[in-house]
Amino acid sequence: MSRLLLISALRHLHRHPWQSWLSILGIALGVAVIVGVDLANQSARQAFLLSAESLTGKATHQIIGGPAGIPEDLYRELRIEQGLRQAAPIVEGLVKLGAENLQLIGVDPLAEENFRHLSGELAADAARRLFLEPASVLLSSITASRLGVAADDNLTVTIAGREVTLQVVDLLEGDNPAVLEGLLLADISTAQELLDSPGRLDRIDLILQPGQAERLADTLPPGLHLEVPASRTRVMMEMIDAFQINLAAMSLLAMLVGAFLIYNTMTFSVLRRRQLLATLRLLGVTRQALFRLLLLEAALMGLVGAGAGLVLGIFTAQYLVELVTRTINDLYFVLTVKQLIIQPVVLLKGFLVGVGVTLLAALAPAIEAAGTVPVSALRRSQLEQRVHRGLPWVGLLGIAALLLGWLLIAVSGNSLLAGFSGLFLIISGYSLLVPPGVALLSRLSNRTGKRRGLLVRFALRGIGANLSRTGLSIASLSVAVAATLGVSIMISSFRATVADWLAYTLRSDIYVSAVSSRASSSDATLLPETRQRIQALPEVAETSTGRRVTIQSRHGPVDLLVLDFASNTHEGFKFLEPPLADLWAGYQRGELLLTSEPYAYRHGLRTGDPIILDTLEGPLSLTIGGVFYDYGSDQGLIGLPASAYTRYWGDAAFATVGVILQPGVEPAAATSAIRQALEGFDQDLRIRSNREIRDYSIGIFDRTFAITQVLRLLAVGVAFIGVLSALMALQLERTREQAVLRATGFTPGQLSRLTLLQTSLMGLYAGLFSLPLGWLMSEVLIEVINRRAFGWSITTQLPVNAVFEALLLAVVAALLAGLYPAWRMSRVSPALALREE
Amino acid sequence: MQRLAVDISNLSRSYREGNRSHPVIRNAEMQIQAGECVALLGRSGSGKSTLLNLIAGIDRPDSGEISIDGERITQLKEPALTLFRRRQIGFVYQFFNLIPTLTTRENIALPLELNNCSIATMPKKVAQMLEAVNLTERGDAYPDQLSGGEQQRVAIARALVHRPALVLADEPTGNLDQAAGENALDLMIALAREEQSSLLLVTHSLTVAQRADRILTLQQGQLSEQGAELAW
Predict the structure, then answer these.
(1) A192/A458 Cα distance (integer angstroms)
(2) pLDDT at residue A425 above 50?
(3) pLDDT band at B226 (very low <50, low <70, confident <90, very high)
(4) Which residues of B touch A (CB under 8 A)?
């Protein structure tokens, strides 16, 4: 490529610093969002995998207990009677330090030797104290330095609601201190004492020789399972897959908006240089050379933007990783990630996406540039005529892309990736329909605008007459605003659906529950007398009980929702399709079960289908009596009556008592009475009113979507930059036209007003065009994406304020973007502007 | 016998206006000898620019042949035509068409660089040309820092620096005052002679046309060589 052509291109970028830097900023933000989300996701996964790996150590198999854990005697039996010397018992629990969760692991130091080296080289005194002193623990060295804790310090924590002072006898270094973040290690008996689970183990790690596993699996008592650690890790990873894919897709949305910005900038760059490009063609510069030149310019912006995006992305990730971890903790499992793991492959991916999308977005303008006719360039009017002639084709292409997107969604089954591809096709198709739409709208408004003042007429005509630029700007602003509207409708519909579900599903006035110290699920239970004591109170009309436990089924581990109904509990279920006719009678007899919508969706089950569960008495086949709406777990639930659970799993414990009050009794007064009645019980309780649980749940919902909101805001940021850049380019490019107006008698004030009026009108057009697309996007997000990712049905609700916000956002963004050009227009010397041209 | 720089035979070009075909050039015949300066005179809308575009290879005729320096450009495909234009044709336009992001020196060097002129000889050729158009002092100025006359002199230098077989000049004085116009015209004709390039000067001004060796007129699509007075 000619050196002078390169110099010319670079100087062009330098001479239009605002546009160049705004584009670079847009690319940088797009890349930052992608890299930020990716790094946060990968850090969470990596932290989980590394910590799972270091905690699993060399174990080839693990014995996993059911809801009641594993009796300690089994461990002795394995070692002594079965001669399995390579076995190590594990007790796991949660410890709260302020708002932070620490993971308490109880191990038998003597059995650990063959499995893992968590503690590294401990001082002999520390090992002795760990055995002998009560509440003595080892704390991760990274966590200790973060918390400012040293060896021999005391640490006051909360375990299952009880305040406990732990003695940190030494710090854990291990082979890789980073993977031990948030870990407390104790002797197994200390851990059992702290977690109030004497004689109970959560897991037994084993190193088995080939053939031993099959024999052992056959001899295990009912309710216990032998698993390969990797499959357990995989199951947990799959739980967060959908959540992480959704985040990644949201980040791509920001990049898509960024792509519009780049496309805009490059198109304007070609349009404003059409005379120059024609001259170059005249001088013998080939089409290919012009094409390469334009792509090179784009690549340069892409490289700088993507490079800056990586740095911004790392900063963004520091913040996002906390949000991601919080959501995983709220919804899936306990995870401590305090350190961002910067993987070069993530950075490389983000960088390539940034440069790739930039080049892709610049492709059409580069083709346009290469097609420049070497006659002195087309006159503006000819160019606009050509654009108007091409509108029907653009419209048809848009309709084709929309149909293709719809078709892809319709035929792609449950594929989330195809769902997102369809969504992006729909967005692209719609954006192609915007320029023809603007032409139509301009024609209509020109008719009505005839009776209006001069400025309004000028502003209205200007939009239609300069469609080659205005169409683009309005389309990109529409897409950006629609994206925020679509996500907004999705979140508010989801929130309203969950609020509605909470209102009908929570049938009791007060809930009394046991505080859990377990890491995996809320399997702490209440003392059996709790229910009787509550039931005996005069304030109480009725009680129900509930518990969630994890058991095995043919479809892998599944959460059981075990309920002992009050008279109104069944009113808390709403079904997707009509349930079986004798549902409640069959359910109470233990012949029918219920499945939540996500469970049925994930496993392709319907009402009337059988499900096989592993009970203490062997496999049990039950029929699905109904599929109910549930938003409490995206992994899904199976509902069983307490009587059936007790019968098949030999466990009558419950974790929650639902209390229905007598008419007229205030929840606050009843709560005091319940507290009084349960005083003296040696258990940690949480008593919450219906209202408090609803607020708490909605709080978790809002926390879950906090990251979505952050990504939405970032997408709006990119969109705003895009609009600013496009409108500035549009107005600055019309300097000569404005100079002619100045020369023919327009005052600077009139010109400023004209510019602002026109950009506001464009904003209004964009706002109006964004409404159908926003609605369409929300429908796809709700009906396709959410359903495929989580299996939830959401009732669409159109929030009126979101519609007004979208319109306001479009107009304000356009108005703000028009300020600088308006100011510049009012100051430009007409003579100079005319001469410069 | 002298070499022919331009040889046009039986050239026709028409444009469609709705359903009607509107002929602009009809069966034109024209020859320009190497080093000759020919003026093409005609009123606005007579088809002068169309003929110029056809000769430059940036428009295609409906029928007929155009040969430049022995090469039948009507037979060339687009990429070959571009490369041919790069080597053999120089352009001077009414509105200068300089590259605004290149300095005077760089604008003049551009055709040399596109023609892969050696880096060793390029600065010397550019310096000579700058001196020839009397702009040595303005070598580092950008086009928007030059007067109209200076810009046209840069355009002339750019058109001739790579010694093309043919220089096409479309109303080269149309955007200049009389003095600057005459100056530019003198310079262009002198330099074309010096570089042995043929010059086709398209103009509607009889005064400008009279500076050429020969005057061709274009009237209603018909090209003829006759007394300029008759044509005007």
Answers:
(1) 80
(2) yes
(3) low
(4) 53, 56, 58-59, 78-79, 82-83, 85-87, 89, 91, 93, 95, 97-102, 106, 109-111, 113-115, 144, 158
How far, in Å, CA of A151 to CA of A168, rounded?
A: 6
- Which site among B77, B114, B160 would you substitute to test the A interface, given the most A Cβ atoms closer than 10 Å to its Cβ? B114
pTM over 0.90: no
pLDDT for the residue numbered A178? 66
Q: What is the ipTM of this complex?
A: 0.82
Q: Give chain A's count of helices (H) and strands (E).
A: 28, 20
Taking contacts as CB-CB distances below 8 angstroms, the residues of chain A near B111 are 283-284
Any idea which of A637-646, A811-820, B111-120, B161-170 has the lowest mean pLDDT?
Answer: A811-820
DSSP state for residue A180 in the 8-state scheme:
G
**Can you tell me the distance from the alpha carbon of A314 to that of A35, in angstroms, rounded to the nearest whole number?**
7
Which of B78, B99, B158 is facing A276, going by the closest CB pair?
Answer: B99
Residues A184-222 have pLDDT tens digits of 888 888 988 888 888 888 888 888 887 788 888 778 887
| Cα dihedral A345→A347→A348→A349 (10° resolution) | 90
Q: Does the beta carbon of A553 lie under 8 angstroms from any beta carbon of chain B?
A: no
CB-based contact B79 A287, cutoff 8 Å:
yes
Pick from A521, A578, A513, A576: nearest CA to A550: A521
Q: Which two tokens stand for residue A691?
A: 């209202």
**Tens-digit pLDDT profile for residues A681-709:** 766 778 888 888 888 888 877 877 777 77
Closest chain B CA to residue A835: B144
Around Cβ A829, how many Cβ atoms within 10 Å? 11
Helix boundaries (H) for A578-666: 583-588, 597-603, 642-649
Q: Look at residue B12 and give its three-state secondary structure.
A: strand
Which residue among B98, B113, B144 places its CB closest to the CB of A4?
B113
For chain A, how long is the longest CA-to-CA vector?
105
| Interval B186-193 mean pLDDT | 87
Record: contact B144-A836, CB cut-off 8 A: yes
In sequence order, what are the beta bridge partners of A560? A549, A638
For the purposes of burial, counting CB atoms within 10 Å of the CB of B116, is it exposed (0-12), middle (13-18) or buried (19 or more)?
Answer: exposed
Paired tokens of A617: 């008495």
Tokens of B145: 């820092």
Angle between helix A706-733 and A800-827 (nearest 10): 30
In this structure, what DSSP letter does residue A568 have? T
Q: DSSP letter string over A289-314?
A: HHHHHHHHHHHHHHHHHHHHHHHHHH
Q: Is the dihedral of CA A630, A633, A635, A640 positive or negative?
A: negative
> Would you give the DSSP letter of residue A654?
-
